[in-house]
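Researcher: Structure prediction, please.
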Amino acid sequence: AYDAPRELAADLAVIAASLSAHHAAPIARLRLSGLQQAVEVFGFHLATVDLRQSSDVHERVLTELFTRAGTQADGKPMDYSRLDEDARVVLLRAELAQARPLASPWIAYSEETTRELAVLRAAAAGRARYGRLAVQQTIVSHTETLSDLLEVLVLQKETGLIDAPGIEIGAGDGLMVVPLFETIPDLERGPEIMAAWLDLPEVRQRVKRAQNGTQEVMLGYSDSNKDGGFLTSNWSLYQAERALVDVFSARNVRLRLFHGRGGSVGRGGGSSFDAILAQPPGTVAGQLRLTEQGEVIQSKYKDAEVGRWHLELLVAATLESTLAPRAAATSAEDARMAHYGPAMSFMSETAQRSYRGLVYDTPGFAEYFFAATPITEIAGLNIGSRPASRKQGQHIDDLRAIPWGFSWAQCRLMLTGWYGVGSAIEAYLETGAPGAPRSRRARLAQLREMAREWPAFRTLLSNMEMVLAKSDLAIAARYAQLVPGRSLRERIFGQISAEHGRTIAVLRLLTQRELLADNPALRESLRERFAYIDPLNYLQIELIRRYRNEQRDGSKEPDKRVRSAIHLTINGIAAGLRNSG
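Model: Predicted structure follows.
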């Protein structure tokens, strides 16, 4: 068998050259060229598979491995989970330098440890059978420390993905370890973690030899939005990207950013073309990765012609961003950051206070959310790869980011795509920030200039405008009627309604026009879709009311037909709104 696709490609090239030399090139064009292209694009593996697991799972697995192996510290049994960060780094680096295995085939481990080791061993077997391009990367969700990345290297060594020191088994250098920075604090720590990672000699050698001088970093839009709100999430992501460019440039390593975007604007959705062009200089250096999910795949790639058009847009934006003169672009961006950065930082802090004040600090907010949105009904719909919540109970902290944003879209508030921005801009106009223009008129002129001249801010406002155009307070008020307590309902919906009006007012002030006045095609498209979506919303409200009343009654099993109808309305509303999940 061929060891790698390039060997097959070389033989096919010999055949193609022979056909051409003997006046049979048309045969190559008819049959052979398609096979050559398929080998070039797909190899033997069709599509590369990424592994992904949470850092806390890796920690638990290694804690068990170290404990069962009898690892000691200062002559006493060691508990890896209780070590501080510095001690963990020292231990993990020492383990990587060890030739002897840590895991034993003669020890029965817990179900979780057995499962995680089996996944990595399957990846090693897949790479051996289909080539190393079949599985190339493993993503570490919730990366918070340097040890989170080193843990994965140790587990790769234990499962045959990395050759142990002095022992050649043909595994090579294993999978690229890709950190995923998700929450606001993680994004802030990300550049520091990557600097420490790339400064480790064993890592630097791997990046240079096995990864062709490239290191990937994944950025999470969903959890950062749920953590800090729309404006703060976008600003934190932007600053993290700029800092990462500096870290990688100083170490002469190519940075490839992997954007974990979702369908909704709160999760990084919106125009991919505009999003790519709005990236900081140096972050799109001929390559980037992004995720396409849910109804986005359906709308963009179901039709081949539309799919090609979207791929062309991605390529065009990547080329345009890459070919912009780096020095000039960086200089212009530095000037914008110096001029606009303090204003954005002030507005980000204000928006985060406003958002967290509602979501995490308002008494009864969780009760309101679970009653006024179809979140419990969404949890019963098979539309995700994981449960809607990490734990049982009604706690916002435990709720996953995707159903969180999806629920707000269903009740036509789309809170994750705008809440807090109105208060932030209004506060900046009224009080300013250190170094800001002195008068309100001058600060307004500055914000209007930002909306015109700064792609990052312009794209943020454009996405928010589209979300606000899809929101409907009258329908949202009907959903609020599902909340049993009148006082709670009026207090929280009143707060949301006030911020909604505030946000639309400041957006009109900055753009000097009505919503979507510059995009009549989208405005008309939405108007046509609302004729179908709005009745579905009212129908969903009534169905939810009936179903929940039957659940509370308890005298008989709730009608499954009603539940099925609710699920149909959920699908219909999502399809109509499009970027809702």
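Model: The CA atoms of residues 79 and 269 lie 42 Å apart.
Researcher: Thanks, that helps.
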